Amino acid sequence: MRSSASAPAAGDGEEGADSTPLLPGARRAEAAPACCSARYNLAILSCFGFFVLYALRVNLSVALVEMVDTNTTAADNRTSKECKEHSSLIKVPHNQTGKRYPWDAETQGWILGAFFYGYIITQIPGGYFASKVGGKLLLGYGILGTSLFTLLTPIASDLGAGALIVLRALEGLGEGVTFPAMHAIWASWAPPLERSKLLSISYAGAQLGTVISLPLSGIICYYMNWTYVFYFFGILGIFWFILWTWKVSDTPEMHKTISSYERDYIASSLKSQLSSQKSVPWIPILKSLPLWAIVVAHFSYNWTFYTLLTLLPTYMKEILRFDVQENGFLSALPYFGSWFFMILSGQAADSLRTKGNFSTLCVRRTFTLVGMIGPAVFLVAAGFIGCNYSLAVAFLTISTALGGLCSSGFSINHLDIAPSYAGILLGITNTFATIPGMVGPVIAKALTPDDTISEWQTVFYIAAAINIFGAIFFTLFAKGDVQAWAVGDHLGHRH
């Protein structure tokens, strides 16, 4: 690592602080093999964990269609007549033995949105406790708790909408600690030059969970009934928890089967980046402009992400009159694209840093710009396709897929600037980034009282503008090196 004796101090505010190639002239320790290594086993197990996490999150979106009495929702139909009907008029009979409830559109909105009210509360506490007690059990119990609450969904539904809303909020509380806890684990496990690869594998499980759980939930509802959706994924979460507690350790030093070579390799690569401070430097953290650059980018990205996740399918159904949920493959295709680009970006980012001599800051900026401006462009384009639902599916897929590039951009920049406090930093940024999921759909509904194409264009313009602003702000104020307050000795360190 290059120290402050030969380079500007980390966090000194100078643009040149991370503008030179990575580790120039430094002697790098030879990396431990990836195959069968403890760190890559951790990446795969955490990928499985985030697969379960997102399956537990999105399965209600599919099951709710079967849970609600169609006679109740008929009065809420606001379908536009601007485009011709594209959906199949022939409905194939399927299993309908599950109970149905008289929940109107407003009640359904509260049920779906309740998750975020719990989720936003535990972000920062999750990061703090992960930094103090370790992220393994915090993440494990977070997913276990969500799994157990998921198993109780049929019972809560019988008790009424209020009980289900409370249950979903409790699920949000459990899931809120997971991302900060995972970041805290990677702070001790991910060598700097492998961060993009390892974290992209780990968090890509979220997209994979969406890809598989959406059509699978539909199949379960079709051939069985909606209650089995919650039973299946709840039991899967419990199975993952057993595997996780058995195979994973908070640090390489605590791992029982890691090779001494791999343990020494990880320790030496992180030697000058971790802080020995016992207390959290809250004031320097909150005053850090690079952190706020991540906050703005994360908030902006999620605004467009949630627009694509919740509003564009609505636009296709109400305006284009094509229900993408009727085709499980089409509903999952955008998230498969995002999963693919996440894995690809992780490999490409670390390759650019190690072999291409690109600085960490340059790589983070590039992937953030492409991963945020690209989706914005295709989101705006979605407002000008008329009644062409084929292009709508194409634009949805491209937009969501390009967003996957951000996994090697701002999404892991917390570990670049403060690995010791990465969980806390992610808790802070994810708190702000949860707000779009809570207010975005409400604002969109207010802007589309008549469900016209021109009204929806305004929704897409706003989301795209926010995304572009976030990308520019991050590019201007982000850093790629460990900040002085994050190491406790006020010395600059490069990676």
Task: Tell me what you see in this structure.
The protein contains 19 helices and no strands. Helix 3 packs antiparallel against helix 18 and helix 14 packs antiparallel against helix 15. The radius of gyration is 23 Å and the shape is globular.
Return Rg in Å: 23 Å
N/C terminus separation: 6 Å
Number of strands: 0
Number of helices: 19
Helices, strands, pairings?
Elements: H1 38-67, H2 70-73, H3 105-119, H4 123-133, H5 135-151, H6 153-159, H7 161-176, H8 178-189, H9 195-223, H10 227-247, H11 260-270, H12 282-286, H13 289-318, H14 328-354, H15 360-382, H16 389-403, H17 413-417, H18 422-447, H19 453-477
Supply the key terms.
495 residues, mainly alpha, 19 helices, globular, disordered C terminus
Quick overview of this protein structure:
The chain is 66% helix and 0% strand.
